[in-house]
Amino acid sequence: MKKNIQEELIAIIKIALRDIGIDSELAQGIYLDLPANERFGDLSINCALKLGSLLKRPVFELAQNIIEAIKIRLEKSVLKNYVKEIKVEGPGFINFYLENKYFYEQLQAILFKGVNALKTDFGKGEAVLIEFVSANPTGSLSVAHARQAAVGDSLANILAFLGFKAKKEYYLNDEGNQIEILGKSVELRLGELNGEKIEFPENYYQGDYIYDIAQKIKNEKLEIKNLKDFAAEYILDIIKKELDDFGVKFDYWYSQKALNRSDKIKKALERLRKKKFLYELEGASWFKSTAFRDDKDRVVIKSDGSYTYLAPDIAYHEEKYRRGFKRLINLWGPDHHGYIPRIKAAAEAFGHNRDSLSVIIVQLATIFKEGRPLQMSTRKGQYITLREVLTEVGKDASRFFFLMRRVSSHLDFDLELAKKHTSENPVYYVQYAYARICSILRSSPVKIKKREIDFNILKEAQEIRLIKKLLQFPCILNICLSTKDPYMLTVFLQEVAEGFHKFYDLHRVLGDNEYLTQARLGLIEAARQILGVGFDLLGISKPEKM
């Protein structure tokens, strides 16, 4: 039984490319994908398209040469028993058609070992730090933060499943201008509660939670020396509870205030100066970021001796590496897009591989209720919060819906759809498939006899389609890894649910033929396991009854 045909096929493809004189450097980025349509095979590579352009060679001819080289290598490998056919199709895709024998063996392995049979040690224990949300503690989390939380947490789960040592961090912006405004906002509301007539500035925080903080101080007669710190800690407790109810737990909370009060910023900039990447101009210190593909150099120390925003960010990211993390992933909002080149430049200046730092821009979300978008205004406290969405539709629907579009796409979140208990609601649809399988297995008078199952008996189109879909699971997770986006897993789970529902609607699981019953029970048990692991990775529950 071949545990991971993808890894072995990639190894063979790379050797085949070398055999026909293609430089190994050009073969580094090659990966197997799933064809857009099942009629184009089970696995696909687009290397002929990419290499044809680079090498100025006809794509179809190059693809044929690659296929011939792969076939020669396959003849020397046990994989020849599993690869039925290789074709050039479309504009130059090389598609692999696998023998059903491979799928039957994989299905058998899942029954004996669980989904761990499909698990790979792709990460080999590499330490990865994912930083996400990192909202200022100046108010409840918005839906934009909620989307980042769902993406970051699910991505960390996927990385851990793939063998990485993944940790989650929240960078706490607990110092700076916004915290100062927070403290002043509470101070003014306290004055109002004490009968003072207050002119409230437009740029101050005006949400009801500011009144709540002021009321608490007044009612409990608290003597607060530092209003801004008290308010920030009060709000941070709210944020932590919201995240906890959303199923997101961080491994680390990294304080900007603690960083600023340490000597880490100074030392980081000194290291850059020693490397000749800092220079003086007009009384300020500049980071020579243009040496690393930034469009202009950046000030890190102003002429008055104070740091710019970039200085602590440089120190913070270098600190991540110094803590032992080999790969960094940041999830940022769209307003930070222009900040990416300078932070990557800093990583490179310290000697780290530029690609070891990935910055993923998570686009915003719009909440729809009764067909109308709900408006948001952070300062006035009129924005839609994570808490409101959780109250309205619950954790499972919230998390799943926040993941249902690529992070690079704007997300429309329909609250009414998320509450429906029908197949229109994607999360209900996939969870119902899981519960339906559990019901069949629970009520079955026949127990699964793992060692006696012969999956070769499964010949119906819906059976084969479901088996093949289930065994795309490792490839789907690899796509999530390469894109740093869990979105494809939500698509996969919906397709598995659809495949199961279609199979079950057309074919009896518990029939008169004992051997067929056993094989079909084994098939739906594998579906249950893969759906269950998918739910775990996305952070949604596994209901056994609905």
What does this protein structure show overall?
With 546 residues, the chain is α/β, with parallel strands linked by helices. The chain has four domains: 5-98, 2-Layer Sandwich (Gyrase A, domain 2), CATH 3.30.1360; 103-123 and 422-538, Isoleucyl-tRNA Synthetase, Domain 1 (Orthogonal Bundle); 128-173 and 250-361, HUPs (Rossmann fold), CATH 3.40.50.620; 177-245, no CATH class. It has helices at residues 5-19, 47-55, 59-74, 100-113, 143-161, 177-193, 208-219, 227-245, 256-261, 264-274, 310-322, 340-349, 386-402, 415-419, 426-443, 461-470, 473-483, 487-506, 514-538, and strands spanning 43-45, 83-89, 93-98, 127-131, 165-172, 252-255, 278-281, 284-287, 298-301, 327-332, 357-361, 365-369, 372-373, 411-414. Strands 6-5-4-10-11 form a five-stranded parallel sheet, sandwiched between helices. The protein has a three-stranded antiparallel sheet with strand order 1-3-2. A three-stranded antiparallel sheet has the order 7-8-9. Strand 12 (365-369) and strand 13 (372-373) form a beta hairpin. The chain is flat, with a radius of gyration of 27 Å.
